[in-house]
Structure formats: structure tokens, C-alpha cells
Design brief:
CATH superfamily of the domain at 363-618: Single-stranded right-handed beta-helix, Pectin lyase-like
Distance between the termini: 8 Å
Shape: globular
CATH architecture of the domain at 363-618: 3 Solenoid
Strand content: over 45%
Number of strands: 51
Length: 619
């Protein structure tokens, strides 16, 4: 078998719901950490006529940062000023751990009162999600809601979201009247925003649909729809952006970017004035990789230019670089491929599967671990109680508390198909014991989601499908019994992930240990948006494995010279990736590749953070 390697790097400063829940509806069992904003003491009306600003602000003030979910039943919640997430609560710093969830996206609406934010030069948001002077605002989520800025609000922003390491805006909609709205989803309102995920979101109207900015910490997007923006669909000013599934219908450019951007599987439809614009504008020396981008109605697919024409709509003629004119782009990169061995200059195109949708069961059927004797404060051992809950016969097991201690590994088996928390943790800081061992059971797939920290990590000991979503886990490892199984990792932070001949699809993956970060031993690993910290090999592909890395960056904070960034050992690897390093110790070796027993090294060249590219591909 012949192997080849290539690397592309840039360096720069739904299933049917059970009976009891209507399709699209999400709900939790009653618990003190599940805060219904329509119930006392908040009593928001959600009738579209009563001003609910004061009630919702009080609910935020008293519950953000406390491992709780603010639950919005179906209704229209009228607001007349910005709802803010406070930096402190009860005298303590707010470090995140907040979930806002609507019962049903299109029927759970936060609507801005008409004529509230009328100054387009001083934009303000329906909701501002906080953050402070470090990237430590963890595990924040806004899901299943619509933000509507209505009419006569030209200075209105739908949502200013902020989260670090894990965090997501999922299944949300942002809408504005014809001349109303500045930005739908604003991720550029302050620095150090991310890593985070935006998934299954639609923006209708606004001057700008989605805004991102600044160099760190990376942001990942999947299944994004933009409609009817007045200036631009998506604006990126310096972030590291990874996008899969981008659907735009606009008379203006669909995307303008500088920084590092990867986009795959996009459909960009132009209408009206779009015929005078490019669909995509890459400027100020930004680096991009495009794959399977289809355009209609635009002057050209891509304007890849150094400085935009400040006078008009980026007047570009001819083809800047081969392949940029379009209308369709199969693959395009601003960076030439760099390889250790002779290799094809195309991405691996590993097969892609979507993360399985969450099945929301009727809350009365959930097993709440506290009801089985688990201690949500972590003061006493909950091992026996947690295992009883898992073995109770329930399909959904709920961890609503802040902290659980367990002296034994909890085996996930039987009828369990979902284990869900509220950003709580288990065995915080203890790395001596696996927290969950996922074994065989009745359900074909098992989902673990919304844990703030699993001190000992997860072991996959089954071939059935495993989904890890929105969580922090110390380690993730497969056993020989897991070989051949599917693993989905979405919005997860951790240390030392090791896969054994498994099929892996990861979105918004953040690994931060020093030493080897991720090992793909003989399987397929597809990663969309990978952010790392500290030195050591970021991906080791061996045993005939195949790895495809679509976007992201190394935030190299320690020991860049410790090891090669990537190791490809008789296997196949491809990446479009970047690095940001502020400590003067960036990676020195980019790739160490072994093919047919011969090893070659790709060193970082030059003293500047210059673009670097390369590939890895199996023939």
C-alpha cells in the first residue's frame, strides 16, 4: 500500500420523538436548577404585549453562572432594553455554565419593542452574554430560540454571544424588518471569543447576518442559512473560522473575510445587485480554503485581493488566481500545497456524517440521579446511586446538580440512550478513575452531553454509536471492543484523545494537554474546527489511519519545540490549519512523516509567521 502526505497550514499573529412531546419541543423534569422564566418569582408573561425586560433581567441576574438552565416556554417575550449576563452573582465571579433554552424555536421568541435602538451608529443587542478580561467564560449555550428585532430598530443586534472552550448557539433564528437590524449574531463584540460552535442557525434580514473578529480563539459553524442582508451575509475580521454547510440568498456578497477561513459545502445564490459583486471577498492577505462552493447570480465566485476597493463593490476583473472565477469552486486555496513525500494536491474528502439529533423524551420518563440518592454537592460518594439510575430502565438519565463524586466507573448499558447534565461535573480534578464506560446496550446509539468537567474521562467499550456533545472530559479512549464503531464529538474540550480503528467525526474540538493530543490508530478521523493549546503532537495518525483536518488553529502557549505538530506514520493526513503564538516558542517541526520505513521532516521555514502548506493523502 502506498501512502502520501500533505499539509496546508497558515501562521498568523432527527429521529421520531416519543409520545408526550410534540415534534420540535424540548423540556426538562422539574428541578431547582431548571428555571422556568414564566413561573414565580420571575413570572414573565410571554404574551407579546407585556414588557418582560425586568422579569427576564432578574432571572439572568440570579441564575447565570450557576449550572442552571433558564427555560423559556412557548411565547413571545417583549423586551425594551439590552438583557445582560452579569460578571458577578451573589458577590462571586461568573465563570459561565449557563444554558438558555426555548421550548420550540419558531414559537419561542425574544422580540425587541419597536423604536428601541434607533441609532445605527450606536448599535445595541437584545441580549449581551458577557465575558470579561480573560478567556475563562466557559460552557454557555443559547438554543432553540428566535431573536426578532422587529421594525424601526436600525441599531439593533439580535444576540451578542460569548463563550470559551465549549459553548454554542444552536437551532436559533435571527430576524429583522426590511430596514431594521445591524447584526443578527454578533461574535465580534469583544476579543478572545471562542472556541465555540454555531450550528443550525438562520439569519433573515439585518445589515450584516453574522459578524466575527480578532485572532483567537477560533469559531466553528455548521448548517448556516443567511437571507436578505443589506450589506454582507457573513463578515470575518481576523478570526480563525471553519464552516461546513453555508446557504446564502442575497443581493450583497455572501461572505467577506480576512484571517484564516475554511469553507466546505456552500450554496451562494445571488439576486438583483449581486450581479455586480463577487460572492466571496478575501482581503488584507487573509488565507482561505474553499471546497464544493456553488454560486449563481454573482459577478464571480471569489475576489481574492489584498486591499478592497474602498469606493465601490470590490471591482475585480479577470481571474486573480486560477480557479477563483467560478461560478463553482471544487477546491481552492490561497496556499500552495507543501508535502514531505510526493502527494496529490487535493483534500482527502473523507465521508462525512452529521451528528445524530438529540431525542427529547417526555420529562416524566427521565431518571433524575438525585432521586436515586446521588449527592449533587459532591460531599458524599454517589457511585451506587448513579449506577442505579443508569440501570433503572429509563432511556434518559439526568444529572441536574453541580458536582458529583464517584468512587467507581459508571457503566452505561441497558436501555440508556442519553445522559444529560446542566454543565455540572464529576470527580473534579481526579484523573485516577474513568468516569463513564460506555458498554453494550439496547439502544443503537448513546449520547452524553452538557457536563462541565469529567475528571477521569470516558472509555468507549462498544461498537454502537457514541455521541459526545458540549462537555469537558479529561480523556477519551477506545478499547479493542470499540473498533469499527462510530464516534461523534461535538463542542468538546479535553486532554489526550485516543481512537482505535473507529470512525470519528468531530466538530469544534478543543484539546489542551501538553504531549500528544489526539491519536488516530487505524481509523478515519474527520475534524471540523480544531483548536489546541500547549506543545506536543496535535494529531498522530498511524496504523493505516486517515485523518482530515478542516480548519482551526494551535494557540501554542507552551513547549512548541517539544514535538512535531503532526505525525503521519504509514498513514494518510490532510490539514488546513494555523498557529498563533505569543510566548516566542512556536512549533519548529510541522510534520514528521514515515512512508515505507523512510522518515522525512517538514520544518517551519523562516523567522516570521509566514504561510505554510502541506498535505497527507493515501493513494
Amino acid at each position: 500500500m502506498k501512502f502520501s502526505c500533505a499539509l496546508c497550514l497558515a501562521f498568523a499573529a432527527s429521529a421520531c420523538l416519543p409520545a408526550g412531546l410534540a415534534a420540535g419541543t424540548q423540556a426538562y423534569p422539574p428541578h431547582a436548577n431548571v428555571v422556568d422564566v414564566t413561573q414565580p418569582p420571575y413570572s414573565a408573561k410571554g404574551d407579546g404585549a407585556t414588557d418582560d425586560t425586568e422579569a427576564l433581567q432578574r432571572a439572568l441576574n440570579e441564575n447565570v453562572g450557576r449550572h442552571r438552565v433558564l427555560y423559556f416556554p412557548k411565547g413571545t417575550y417583549l423586551v425594551s432594553s439590552t438583557l445582560t449576563w452579569p460578571k458577578t452573582f451573589a458577590g462571586h465571579d461568573n465563570w459561565g455554565k449557563t444554558i438558555l433554552r426555548g421550548a420550540e424555536r419558531d414559537k419561542t421568541v425574544l422580540r425587541l419593542k419597536e423604536g428601541t435602538f434607533t441609532n445605527a451608529m450606536k448599535p445595541a443587542a437584545i441580549m449581551w452574554c458577557g465575558g470579561f478580561g480573560s478567556a475563562d467564560w466557559f460552557h454557555n449555550y443559547i438554543e432553540n430560540l428566535t431573536f426578532d428585532v422587529g421594525s424601526r430598530n436600525p441599531g439593533a443586534i439580535g444576540l451578542q454571544f460569548y463563550s470559551n472552550n465549549t459553548g454554542a448557539v444552536r437551532d436559533c433564528r435571527f430576524i429583522a424588518g426590511d430596514t431594521s437590524g445591524a447584526v443578527g449574531l454578533d461574535l465580534a463584540h469583544r476579543d478572545m471569543n471562542g472556541p465555540l460552535l454555531v450550528k443550525n442557525c438562520e439569519v433573515v434580514g439585518y445589515a450584516c447576518g453574522i459578524s466575527t473578529a480578532r485572532a483567537v480563539n477560533s469559531q466553528t459553524f455548521e448548517n448556516i442559512a443567511l437571507r436578505g442582508q443589506r450589506q454582507v451575509g457573513f463578515q470575518n475580521e481576523g478570526q480563525s473560522i471553519s464552516i461546513r454547510g453555508f446557504d446564502s440568498d442575497n443581493a450583497v456578497p455572501a461572505l467577506k473575510t480576512y484571517g484564516l477561513l475554511l469553507m466546505a459545502d456552500a450554496t451562494l445564490a445571488g439576486r438583483g445587485e449581486a450581479g455586480t459583486h463577487p460572492a466571496i471577498v478575501n482581503f488584507n492577505g487573509g488565507h482561505i480554503f474553499l471546497r464544493d462552493v456553488k454560486t449563481t447570480g454573482y459577478k464571480r465566485a471569489l475576489a481574492d485581493i489584498q486591499t478592497p476597493d474602498s469606493a465601490a463593490a470590490y471591482r475585480v476583473t479577470g481571474e486573480d488566481r486560477p480557479g477563483s472565477l467560478g461560478p463553482d469552486i471544487a477546491e481552492y486555496s490561497t496556499l500552495a500545497a507543501k508535502t514531505a513525500f510526493p502527494s496529490p494536491a487535493a483534500s482527502l474528502r473523507l465521508p462525512v456524517k452529521d451528528t445524530p439529533a438529540t431525542i427529547w423524551e417526555e420529562p416524566a420518563k427521565w431518571a433524575v440521579v438525585d432521586a436515586f440518592g446521588a449527592d449533587p454537592t459532591g460531599r458524599t460518594d454517589s457511585a451506587a446511586a448513579l449506577q442505579r439510575a443508569v440501570d433503572s430502565g429509563a432511556s434518559t438519565v439526568f444529572f441536574p446538580g453541580h458536582n458529583y463524586a464517584s468512587s467507581a466507573t459508571i457503566v452505561v448499558r441497558g436501555k440508556v440512550q442519553r445522559i444529560v447534565g446542566l454543565g455540572g461535573q464529576m470527580n473534579y480534578g481526579r484523573r485516577d478513575l474513568i468516569n463513564f464506560r460506555i458498554g453494550d446496550g439496547d439502544a443503537p446509539a448513546v449520547v452524553l452531553e452538557h457536563f462541565g468537567h469529567l475528571g477521569g474521562g470516558i472509555e468507549v467499550d462498544t461498537k454502537r454509536t457514541v455521541v459526545l456533545r458540549s462537555m469537558e472530559t479529561y480523556t477519551l479512549q477506545g478499547t479493542p471492543r470499540s473498533e469499527g464503531g462510530d464516534v461523534f464529538v461535538e463542542d468538546v474540550v479535553g486532554d489526550n484523545f485516543r481512537f482505535r480503528k473507529q470512525h470519528v467525526w468531530a466538530r469544534q474540538l478543543n484539546i489542551e494537554n501538553e504531549g500528544t493530543h489526539l491519536t488516530n490508530d487505524g481509523g478515519n478521523a474527520w475534524v471540523l474546527g480544531y483548536k489546541t493549546e500547549r506543545g506536543g503532537t496535535l494529531i498522530n495518525t498511524r496504523g493505516g489511519g486517515r485523518t482530515e483536518l478542516l480548519g482551526g488553529l494551535s494557540y501554542t502557549t507552551t513547549a512548541g519545540k517539544l514535538a512535531p505538530m503532526f505525525v503521519n506514520d504509514e498513514s494518510s493526513f490532510w490539514a488546513f490549519f494555523g498557529e498563533v503564538c505569543y510566548n516566542g516558542d512556536p512549533f519548529a517541526t510541522i510534520v514528521e512523516e514515515t512512508r515505507g520505513g523512510e522518515t522525512k521532516i517538514l520544518e517551519k521555514t523562516g523567522t516570521h509567521t509566514r504561510p505554510y502548506s502541506g498535505y497527507a493523502r493515501q493513494k
